[in-house]
Design a protein that fits this description.
- The protein has about 180 residues and is an all-alpha fold.
- The protein has a domain of about 130 residues.
- The protein has 6 helices and no strands.
- α5 packs antiparallel against α6.
- The protein is globular.
Length: about 180
Amino acid sequence: MKTETIDEVRQNLGWFIALGILMIVLGIAAIVEPFFATIAVARVFSWVFLFAGIIRIIHAVQSRRQRGFWPKLLIGILYVITGILLLGNVFAAVLTLTLACGGVILAQGILEVIAAFKVRPEPNWGWMLFSGIIAIILGILILYRWPFNAIWLLGMFTAVSFVFTGTWMIMLPWAIRNHLSRI
């Protein structure tokens, strides 16, 4: 391996580890205050819908001469309306987003398990597999318990997912960094 490549990998591993640490810190903060974490997650997703809708509308208007203008525009308008409705009623947003988040965490877990088997020869790949399995379990639990306890489940399960994701994001690059130091 070239010296420049090794240096670049080392530099990027540091950022990956820093992101893992940030994920763990955010996860611990959300475990301490699951209600506020739930509200924060609902607010963030509400704003994402609003901004995504605005961007979709802008894109539709810019490409109005192309096929599919009206569906693009209507989807953008639907996103904007959804964002406004979710921002206007945080508790409805919590219920709706808890259901959606359960599906996303379940999908994240499935994809992490698949990714873990793809990187299986790497040291500490089991952390990614473990994180994926935990995310699958959390996703199923969110969907099973919905709408009961939605006010804290979204924040708590997101927090746990952050902690486990942050853990593998630290462990895998740490092993790669140790391996590179022996080269």
